[in-house]
Write a structure and sequence with these properties.
- This protein is mainly α and 249 residues long.
- The chain has twelve helices and no strands.
- It has helices at residues 3-15, 19-50, 53-60, 65-71, 74-105, 111-131, 138-146, 152-178, 185-195, 200-203, 205-212, 220-248.
- The chain starts with a helix and ends with a helix.
Length: 249
């Protein structure tokens, strides 16, 4: 290719407007995001088996082939929903998990440092209700997912990218505080019990609102009370484990 022809091609490439490509990409990403939000709502309301691709497409305002274009099939849509939720959760929890993992990795970490790290995790989880934008249907979506009512692929994504790290660091903190082996089943059970304090306010929101006589609307003061209760109970239970360890010596 001659220098003149190369220059002509470069000039032509520079002259082509980029906004057409950028706009098309942006429009595609917006469509994909709209489908995911619609799918979370439909899967939450009807379950994976009950929600059809047509239901999701209608909710998203797209034609049914669009789902296949972006996600291949219904399971692909579901997995994308889980990935979207995990990205939100890790945005909220990622830093606290990393801090707790560093504390656990330190053999000289004090009881207070371990307790503070666990409480940091609880604080971020409790704050999820307050700081993450409301996603219609996500509470029911996650309730079904955690009950094992979704595809294995979705569970695998959630477990590998989030819950396995969270449960591992929580169990390591509790067993360290108790002075027992990391695989001690009794203490690992306690770790699960403590880490799930306040979970009902997220995955059983409708039932809790009904039993408490609460209106289903944002309430910062109520969220603050829930967070305080979770942190107070967490602190008490972890300190009790330390007292039991020291008294047994």
């Amino acid at each position: 290719m001659t220098g003149a022809s190369r220059a002509g091609r470069a000039k032509g490439a520079a002259a082509r407007p980029r906004h057409a490509v950028d706009t098309g990409y942006q429009r595609g990403e917006e469509t994909r995001a709209r489908i995911i939000l619609a799918a979370i709502k439909c899967f939450g309301e009807y379950g994976f088996a009950g929600a059809s691709t047509r239901d999701i497409a209608n909710e998203a305002g797209v034609n049914a082939p669009a789902l296949q274009y972006y996600f291949d099939n219904k399971e692909g849509v579901y997995t994308a929903c889980v990935e979207y939720i995990v990205s939100l959760v890790m945005g909220q929890m990622g830093e606290a998990i990393e801090v707790a993992e560093r504390v656990v990795a330190d053999p000289g970490a004090t009881d207070k440092q371990l307790i503070d790290a666990f409480c940091g995790l609880q604080n971020r989880k409790a704050g999820f209700m307050e700081e993450v934008p409301e996603i219609e249907g996500w509470h029911m979506f996650m309730a079904r997912e955690q009950a094992g009512l979704g595809p294995e692929a979705g569970f695998k994504v959630f477990h590998e990218r989030f819950s396995s790290r969270l449960s591992a660091v929580g169990a390591n903190i509790v067993t360290r505080l108790a002075g027992v082996a990391p695989d001690n089943e009794a203490m690992r059970i306690r770790a699960v019990c403590i880490s799930t304090l306040g979970m009902a306010f997220r995955v059983m929101r409708r039932s809790v609102d009904c039993s408490m006589g609460w209106a289903n609307e944002p309430n910062p003061e109520r969220n603050r009370l829930v967070r305080e209760a979770v942190l107070e109970q967490t602190q008490y239970l972890l300190e009790r484990i330390v007292r039991q360890r020291t008294s047994a010596r």
